[in-house]
């Protein structure tokens, strides 16, 4: 006699059923698709083998990538190495991936992923007194941008919101650069090479490059991915020459 039947999914994605028998204890039922008078019927046949732990798909905890933060390097510096560090509550093996973007490339990617648009002509400017401008995504999630171009996902309050990227003050002054972003003709990959060896990220701009770009670093356990987008500024080196004023 069967007391209850529960649907189960195993790691290969196949469906099965567990039943609690009042006489024999737990057992499994496997579905079988049958043809009867041009109709497909799903029948359940018992498999009395005991359930194994791998038969059940447990909830996966995503990895946690340690914060990296914005980086600065001189244009005379050959490369910049950053060690990525992440942990996983399930003890899963982690892998890393990286990608570089210019500000226009990142703006275009964000707009394509989020489907951002303005809910009002003035973007609810300074609605909470932070000089912020608000946008909505295709799924009606709210986002806002501060005067420095910091784009946040609304989290119920300014303090609880999530920083997604810092695009620059020009994007706050003219939100159409984000809301109507076009695919850039040139790619930052023509100016900057991003390498990854194990958990070491290497940033290698071409000779005499100066400017700012963004790097996205991800940690994955095969099922879930966590990441951070941070800015990299390549500055001009200070002149080694000291100029003294001329005197008569």
Helix/strand layout:
Layout: E1 2-9, E2 15-21, E3 25-36, E4 39-47, E5 64-65, E6 71-74, E7 80-83, E8 86-87, E9 95-101, H1 103-114, E10 133-136, E11 142-145, E12 150-153, E13 162-166, H2 169-173, H3 176-179, E14 192-197, E15 200-205, E16 211-220, E17 225-235
Parallel strand pairs: 6-17
Antiparallel strand pairs: 1-2, 2-3, 3-4, 5-8, 7-15, 9-16, 10-11, 11-12, 12-13, 14-15, 16-17
Shape: globular
Q: How far apart, in Å, are the first and last alpha carbons?
A: 112 Å
* Count of beta strands: 17
> What gyration radius follows from the Cα positions, in whole Å?
27 Å
What is the residue-averaged pLDDT? 81
Query: Quick one: CATH superfamily of the largest domain?
Result: Immunoglobulins
Can you count the helices?
Answer: 3
- Largest sheet descriptor: 4 strands, antiparallel
Estimate the strand proportion: 35-45%
pLDDT under 50 segments (min length 5)? Answer: 1-24
Strand order of the largest sheet: 1-2-3-4
Order of helices and strands: EEEEEEEEEHEEEEHHEEEE
User: What number of domains?
Assistant: 3
Q: Percent of residues in helical segments?
A: under 10%
Instruction: Provide the CATH top-level class of the largest domain.
Output: Mainly Beta
Q: Helices and strands: which structural class?
A: mainly beta
CATH topology of the largest domain: Immunoglobulin-like
